[in-house]
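Co-fold these.
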Amino acid sequence: MTMRRTTVYWTAFCVILALLIVAPLVLPEFWRRFLTEILIWGLLAMSSDILIGYTGMVSFGHSAFFGLGMYGAAAALLMYKPANLWLAIAFGLVGSAGIALFVAYFSTRLRDIYFAITTLIFSQIFYVIIFTWTEVTGGENGLSFSRPALSIPGLFSVPFTSETLHWFVLAVVTASYLILRRITQSPFGMVLQSIRENEGRTRAIGYPVERYKIVAVMFSGLFAGLAGVLYAIQNRFAAPDFVYFLVSGEAVIFNVMGGIGTLVGPIVGAAFFLLLREAFSRFFTEFYLIPVGIIFIAMVIFVPQGLLGFARRWLNR
Amino acid sequence: MSAGPTEPLVTVDDVHTYYGKSHILHGVSLTVGHGEVVGLLGRNGVGKSTTLKTIMGLVHPERGKVLLAGNPVTSLPAHKLARLGIGYVPEDRRIFRLLTVMENLRTGLDRHGVTDARKQELLDKVFAYFPVLAERRNQPGGTLSGGEQQMLAIARAMMLEPKIILLDEPTEGLMPRMVSQIRDIIGVLRREGVAILLVEQNVPLTLEASQRIYIMEKGAVRHQCAASELNVKDAVIQQYLGV
Amino acid sequence: MDTVLEFVGAIPWDQILIQTVNGIVTGMILALIASGLTLIFGIMDVVNFAHGELFMFGAYMGVVVLAATGSFWLALLLATLIVGLIGACLQITTLRPLLGRDPLTTILATFGISLVMQNYALWQFGPVARKIQEPFTGQFTLFYLQYPWYRILIAGLSAVIIGGFWLFLKYGTYGIWIRATTQDRVMAEAMGIPVPWVHTAVFAIGAGMAAASGVLFGPLVGVNHAMGLDWVLKAFIVVVVGGMGNLGGSIAASIFISLLEAYASIWVSPAQAVIVSFVVLILTLLFRPTGLFVPTPK
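Predicted complex below.
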């Protein structure tokens, strides 16, 4: 039975991957970018799922990780010429990891609600710092820079086209998904889930729960930062808006809509939300959040397991 | 003592209650007549408290019915059942520790349709039965001793003018001197015509105070009879309650 | 001795005293907002993310009623009642179904509500800030400044509202119901207290208090759809620092933090003065996580 499940799962995986690879070749420019954005936001939401879905910690701090990944990449791209892709990624990851460690240290001692509020406040702290430290961060206006080329030093350097950028993002997101999946199914991941189910019991058994939580926050922060780097590369600017806690809120919305604890669910949730936004923008212009927000609230009440929630067991094998 | 209507005051009919996935009550059935004192015995964890909570509407059964004076009340919330005349005195008393004695009493006293005169009557009556409470009426509930808190918990339930009081292990943690006080209080309630469903570990007290006995094991009623038919040393008691 | 005198002389006493007044004024508004928030949390374990938006709605209702009737006081009264009612409706429709579920879901639901309310306000009133005219102008001289009487009124009125509410909690019949429900929801229900309605009432009261703050604060800043965001953040900090569910604590914390920020703004810009509250929060979390003004539980 499990053999069959695994084959079905991987077949589905390959089919979807194939579709995503082919997509930029057939879609018009707007939708191409749209798809790439879905992937990037999906990565952010996926990173947040590690905490919400697997460890049972709701975090509103992901905007800080995302934002620092973005600004880290910006720093690399502005300080070092020629703009180097891998350096940007490295800087972004280091930046977000550092912040993740800081946030983790304070927040993991707190339970549920306090944790959520504290992560929210931390993300706002970073917002204020970035907003006001104009000399370094460009303040309100943010930073803009050019897109680096896809390069392996010494071998080749090819500037990104819209398609190749999409494939690069797809590769990164897919790799991230596979890595995260491996993590959640490892013994470490099992402990995280046991923390979510019953933290007291897990601690009583002898697991150093705080340490596990800190590592979970670190992983979560790293991948969120990676999403930020991708965003910076795609859009060529970094702005404080992305560090505002509303971005974290949106990540949480993607999670809930897609289904927490499924890893792919958040990506689906991101797609669902962005599509709804597109659709409602036609009629409501910039007030799309009114109907979308109502749909979200309704989902929290009536469909709390999210769109893919029914498949949660199956997806976690 | 039950010169009232013939149908029982409280009927529990084949009730199955779950806590999450745990199946606690496996088809509990019992009745309490008007003005009757019924004892519910059994070891720890067999579901006695859960039965009381189900009657009180604090938990709702998956299957089965609870009837009050013949009317189905299974899905009613606890606050409605309290207004309909069910009083609840839980294990560990659970008085409002930060409220004064007087305020604790008022939580039951402040109801629609009760005149100020009647309220004063009820207070006077309860203070007559429990003079200690009168003395301490402005003290926070948390400063009272264990026995005093137990009295407050019962007095508070009496403020509802209930037709039945669900008493969950009233003598637990009390000194022997206080146990006889509980016996007296049960007597008082009987004289007032209030029915009692008494859950207790103290077998002699229960056998003495009750008219009928139910014995539970593993979430169901296994034995029922008149209290007079039972003796502390009986095999039945040893079987279900012995260690 | 001379250096001490020099040092003392260098301290900008007049500025400090002015900022003390400012701090108390802001602190009282914050206290009014935070009281509702901490009350709602204390009684039903709900973190009301939409609290800032109730504040904002109150301010807008104030604008509307003021434009229609020309009376500030009527605006204050009606805004409080209307938003209180809106709060009650929100609680009944979205929060009651979530009772008993993971507390996470209420955070999400109220977050969703805050988004909807913000955008609704933006839709209805547009992005341009509105103004509420204060009921009287008139200033007195505080050192070298002309200090508006209205600000003193705000502090006073907030204190009156909070004080009145505290009295209601302590001595009113329904005050006992609220306190009992906060302490032990299950036993309160077993005593016949209609707990679901107590929850609705408390939410409505919290909403009303937030709305009142919105109207009172309106004349000091412009009324716009995003005004709730900063306040809700500060209110959360205050609630955590004061001890969640602790009414007295959140009032003390409000004034404490507002005073610190006011003093800080003598030397740094207001945007940066905000860091003060963050620092206080971090310190509280590190050393007294149950609340600064709460005795640590044994």
